[in-house]
Amino acid sequence: MSKLDIQITVENEGWRDEAALLLLSERTLGAAAELLADEEKQPFPERAPELSLVFTDDASIREINAEWRGKDTPTNVLSFPAFPLQPGDMPGPMLGDIVIARETVEREAVDLEKTFEDHLTHLLIHGFLHLFGYDHMETDEAERMERLETRILAVLGLSDPYAGQDPIV
């Protein structure tokens, strides 16, 4: 049985096909779910929690960011938990939504000298951890979240995106 019930919406034709995005998302978020369950020493819920992924563009995410965060600018990823969770809590039947903007991911991947897929993988994990209550508003929270991101990425064979940087606060 899958640990997650992932629903995908592709709103921008510049994204890869939906099947490829689903495969990448299942692999990435499945690894994240396993690590979180091991980390918290709690089994994942019997019924796979539902998660919605929206693959969109800068214009759309800019509107969402302005409406929900008061920031009239595009961003790479936004997360909207269905229910508030504290880090370490296991989810109910619905996790929430993650929205990702293709153009921003492309620009950042070039700037970071990463492949698009590797950067997208990192952002999926980052958004997923936000759904579980992890945050990076304070230094200690940022360090905890970054450690988890780095461990999940390592399971997937990807390098530490924060090596040599201060925590993202």
Automatic annotation (TrEMBL):
Cell compartment(s), UniProt: Cytoplasm
Record-listed Zn(2+) binding positions: 126, 130, 136
Co-factor note (free text): Binds 1 zinc ion.
Signal peptide annotation: none
SUPFAM superfamilies tied to this protein: Metalloproteases ('zincins'), catalytic domain
TM region(s), chain numbering: none
Superkingdom to which the source organism belongs: Bacteria
Alphabetized InterPro entries for the sequence: MetalPrtase_cat_dom_sf_prd, YbeY, YbeY_CS
Pfam families, per the entry: YbeY (PF02130)
EC number from the UniProt entry: 3.1.-.-
Cofactor: Zn(2+)
Keyword match Nuclease: yes
Enzyme class, broadest EC rank: hydrolase
Record keywords: Cytoplasm, Endonuclease, Hydrolase, Metal-binding, Nuclease, Ribosome biogenesis, rRNA processing, Zinc
Function: Single strand-specific metallo-endoribonuclease involved in late-stage 70S ribosome quality control and in maturation of the 3' terminus of the 16S rRNA.
Similarity comment text for this entry: Belongs to the endoribonuclease YbeY family.
NCBIfam families reported for this sequence: rRNA maturation RNase YbeY (TIGR00043)
PANTHER family: ENDORIBONUCLEASE YBEY, CHLOROPLASTIC
The protein's name: Endoribonuclease YbeY
Originating organism: Neorhizobium petrolearium
Encoding gene, per UniProt annotation: ybeY
